[in-house]
Amino acid sequence: MAPYLQPRVDGDLRSILDSHDTLHRMLDTLGSPLNLVLPDRLAANVRDFEITLRAYDLGGTVYFAHKANRSSALVRALATTGAGIDVASLGELQHALGAGIGPDRIMATGPKSREFLWLAARTGVTVGADSVPELAELAGIVAAHGLPRVRVMARLSGFASTGTTVLSRASRFGVPVSDLDPLWTVLDKHRDQLDFHGAAYHLDTNGLPEKAAALEGCLEAMAEAQRRGLSPRAVDVGGGFGVNYLADSREWETWTTQLTGAVLGQRPPITWDGHGYGLRNEGGRLRGALAVYPAYRAVAGPAYLDRLLATASAAHRRPLGSLVLDNLYDLHLEPGRALLDQCGAVLTRVEEVRDGLVRVAANSNDVGLEAHGVLMDPILVPRGEPRPDDGPVEVFLAGNLCLEADLITRRRVLLPRPPRAGDLLVFANTAGYLMDFSAGSALMQPTARTVAAWRHGGDWRWCLDERYWPVTGREETG
């Protein structure tokens, strides 16, 4: 059999997923698929990151990357903490302001329309700029409308290590550190419109050496800014702190080993149509690279931030956290996935079981495991009284779209017993990017509603996501 990839589930998420009657009532009321979020866990995750910052005596703000989840309940819960929010669209900015998050706690990042820039400038949020032309356009808007100076962070890219060679992948975002003169020119020219707050990076990688090189590169750029008469006060290290999705490292090692054997023809396939997840067999030799998220991560979230700050600078041979503190800079970060660890799940109803294939009332856009390369098995929640255990079964999970490609998983998953129509398959820990990032109404299939749940004494209460407010939503029960 294919190895089990048991999801890591703890705390309140474990508690509510063990409440089978509650889960079935939710789905019976609102249909399948259904997104479940736990706002209180988000607040706890914020505190864990803040504790790590304080351990290095660093000031700064934890900005939640809004794009990771659309939930209003999560953003409203965030408003009650000391954290900020990173918004990457005009709609996200409006959502954050409407949820009660003040402009001083909002960072506007990503590609920006002129309307997005105007609202950011008009409300006084910090603008994380991706390019020199963007900064010039923002300065023009500020001048034309007589607005106060806007605080800006400049995103940098193309970092090079001063020690061991570290490969930095190309990015379409950011000003190359090899040519910062145009950045200094525009900031100097528009001092009356732009308040340069500091340098930032956001790398599409989990690699610690690359992130350490980027942080060191930002510190060097800020030193140059000071020499030019600017006054940077913060460095932003972006996101990418990661999540450990699996309960057991051995299962992950076993699965990757078996996939390699299957690709090489040394064992029967464990994936749909021999899918190799980036690996291929060329004349008996393994080629390619495993294109999946490292589902088991021994160091993730706040622990990854700690590891980054403890890393020695290649140039100064001192911990990077100490260098940030020596310069009296604040350190900002923008976790998305990591702040949503254990904050939610996707509930789906089993519709049909046949010949090793289980079809659920959801599709691959509702449960984005394959799209984001996150591999973990679902949790089976039977309807009614437990049935005799028929033993574990291997199945493929298919969605509700009339498309061959609509597979919830391209690999066989292991369930503890054969599922039946009406049972639930719950995909745990999906709040970060795996829940609604790609959701749509293809073929007019319904998109998932979202509910927010919280503890009330020894019970669970819940309401529709849009009805949750920190002061009144807890009176609305399921």
TrEMBL record:
Q: Which cofactor does it need?
A: pyridoxal 5'-phosphate
Q: Name one GO molecular function term.
A: diaminopimelate decarboxylase activity
- Keyword Lyase set for record: yes
Q: What is its EC number?
A: 4.1.1.20
| Domain Orn/DAP/Arg decarboxylase 2 N-terminal intervals | 59-252
Q: Entry's SUPFAM superfamilies?
A: Alanine racemase C-terminal domain-like, PLP-binding barrel
Instruction: List the InterPro entries.
Output: Ala_racemase/Decarboxylase_C, De-COase2_N, De-COase2_pyr-phos_BS, Orn/DAP/Arg_de-COase, PLP-binding_barrel
Q: Where does the sequence pass through the membrane? A: none
Which chain positions lie within coiled-coil regions? Answer: none
Q: Which GO terms describe its biological process?
A: lysine biosynthetic process via diaminopimelate
What keywords would UniProt list here? Decarboxylase, Lyase, Pyridoxal phosphate
Alphabetical list of Pfam families matching this protein? Orn_Arg_deC_N
* Protein's name according to its UniProt entry: Diaminopimelate decarboxylase
Species name: Actinoplanes lobatus
